């Protein structure tokens, strides 16, 4: 409503042409009336009275409709007659009424649900998503949105939130029972045995590579008064026994040390779940670990790595992330296109969301109409509305002339037939 466009100007020219036509018909019936009355006075016959009556009623109909049409947009003949110039004077009230009409008839819960249910969004959306090019498009848009979100998010803020969330969650829950149950299951399933195998194998390799260091360490701890050859023999003996022990433990699944380790882990798992002192120690250790700067730095570095990985995957069209998203969308679309239950669920979600928006923000939506109409300039609005509907309104004047003439002729004829 802020600009009178070239299209509006073209419509306004059409209105002016129709005004000329309607006014021309008024002048025509007025001329016919004058001629018919003159002919009647000159003794032309009864037909002249019939023509005059029709022309007289036509003038009345044309003038009445001219007044009605003109009164919508301005004061007829510039005279401020009450209830004229309706659009410029009642513009704001019309805006309020229009807003109320839209709110009551278009933004009601029943109307929204009926229209959305008739559309069948679930089946249509399913058919649309089932097309590969559409799934590609949605995948690309989701990837762009994900990249944008990760780009605008500040690492320091995310790291602080994640670190605080992890710390708060860990502080709020006693982790010892959970660790005990997990350890108990691992021992019961024999999952710890692979770790033991790895440790003793690495220990044997280390002993073989550092034999001199071990014997030097044993000799260095001997008393000063013992002979050197005795210290060396003791060191060799200790090293050989240690190597034998580790080798046997590596090669013998039933080694007593392994059994002792199993019993220790089983007892420790039980203590984690039931022993108060053990659980308290674990909780203290947990607090100390979480409070260390190295742990917080680890959380920060983990987020940085995850963010970089996600951004790279979102940018790569052939990444596993995008391929899986695309496949999921295609599968979802195929299911939605044929499964009535899934369609009904999607329709219910959409209906619920739409109804929530409409019922919650109905006043704001209708106020948009009311405020927009109120902000329009009255004269400019009148001119623009007249350009759009004025041509059709001029047909009312033309029809009024024709219908008035026919009605006048019929009334005059009936009157004469009844002898009036």
UniProtKB/TrEMBL annotation:
Pfam families: DUF445. The chain crosses the membrane at residues 20-39, 51-73. Keywords: Membrane, Transmembrane, Transmembrane helix. It comes from the Bacteria. Signal peptide: none annotated. GO terms for cellular component: plasma membrane. InterPro entries: DUF445. PANTHER family: INNER MEMBRANE PROTEIN (PTHR38442:SF1), INNER MEMBRANE PROTEIN-RELATED (PTHR38442). This is DUF445 domain-containing protein. It comes from Streptomyces regalis.
